[in-house]
Amino acid sequence: MLDAIRALFAGEPTTAAAEPETKPETHATFYADPLHIAACALLLDVAYADGEFSEAEVEHLEAVLARHFGLSEEDGRRILALADEARRRSVDHYQFTSVLLRGYDVGQKMVLAEVMWGLALADGEIAEHEHYLTRKIANLLDLEPAYLSSAKSAAARRQAERKGE
After folding, report:
1. 122, containing H or E segment
2. Is 70 left (phi over 0), alpha (psi -120 to 50) or beta?
3. Domain edges within the chain
4. pTM score > 0.85 for this model?
């Protein structure tokens, strides 16, 4: 696993960046996709931007991992742990956004932007630093302001639907 994180920071190609890990209890393999780690690291930064990673944000992020990455609850927690370790060791966002620039198309970056806004809205309000950070990351991902605005509107709509408004 640590090799996957080191490769991510070294900028190696994503196909060679992570080696499967064997789970001793099941002998199944777990593959830590560098795209998942990079996206989760950015999402965790957004979640922590207001100084608190609330229960609503945790639930939102876990649902995203299951829905968008197709991860089981256990594998989602593993990816989150790896991403959190990578995030804490990072000096900037470029090391994550550069991986996503190589691996994501515009549609996938738009979905990530919507997820970032949804995460910022999960606790009921968008803090100033969450707003700033989401815009900064979107800029590093080369997303145009109109795309970011659409993603924010879509996230707000989904949030309202969940609340039954």
Report:
1. none
2. left
3. 34-163
4. no
